[in-house]
């Protein structure tokens, strides 16, 4: 679904999410695996696995698996259950990101108002 509106905030393109059942089942299974690894990591911390070199590496590997599993859950959720929306944004001119106002586009001389420039640099909300 596309719209021809070009004003700020109009939805340019909207594609609904697929919401497949297979993705929902995969997310549930990955969540169960995530919970198992979190409990295993917590048990390892409580029982002192981190006091030995191999136990410390094992806890690190479990923590890595936890975050990789979480990344797969979030990626699958984003791809399958969130709609793809493109919104029209306000286009900026090149000078807007570089300068404070249109008057400053050509630059300022070095000696003019040097003290005011220093005050604005130190205190950016200084009123003119």
In short:
Helices cover 55% and strands 7% of the residues. The protein has four helices and two strands; from the N terminus they run E-H-H-E-H-H.
What do these coordinates show?
- With 128 residues, this protein is mainly alpha-helical.
- 55% of the residues lie in helices and 7% in strands.
- The chain has four helices and two strands.
- The protein has a two-stranded antiparallel sheet with strand order 1-2.
- It is flat.
- The relative contact order is 0.14.
- The model has no long low-confidence stretch (mean pLDDT 80).
List the uncertain runs: none
Output mean pLDDT.
Answer: 80
- How would a textbook summarize the main sheet? 2 strands, antiparallel
Strand order of the largest sheet: 1-2
Distance between the termini: 48 Å
The backbone outline, from C-alpha atoms, is flat
Rg, rounded, reads 27 Å
SS field, number of helical segments: 4
- How large is the share of residues in beta strands? 5-15%
Oligomer: single chain
What is the N-to-C order of secondary-structure elements (H for helix, E for strand)? EHHEHH
Total number of β-strand segments? 2
Structural class, by secondary structure, is mainly alpha
Helix fraction, binned, reads 40-55%
């Amino acid at each position: 679904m596309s719209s021809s509106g070009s004003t700020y905030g109009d939805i340019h393109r909207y594609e609904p999410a697929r919401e497949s059942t297979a993705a929902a089942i995969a997310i549930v299974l990955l969540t169960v695996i995530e919970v198992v690894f979190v409990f295993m990591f917590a048990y390892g911390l409580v029982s002192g696995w981190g006091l030995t070199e191999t136990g410390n590496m094992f806890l690190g590997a479990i923590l890595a698996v936890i975050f990789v599993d979480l990344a797969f859950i979030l990626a699958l959720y984003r791809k399958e259950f969130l709609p793809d929306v493109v919104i029209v944004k306000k286009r900026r001119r090149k000078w807007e990101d570089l300068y404070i106002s249109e008057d400053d586009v050509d630059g300022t001389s070095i000696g003019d108002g040097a003290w005011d420039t220093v005050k604005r640099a130190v205190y950016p909300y200084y009123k003119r």
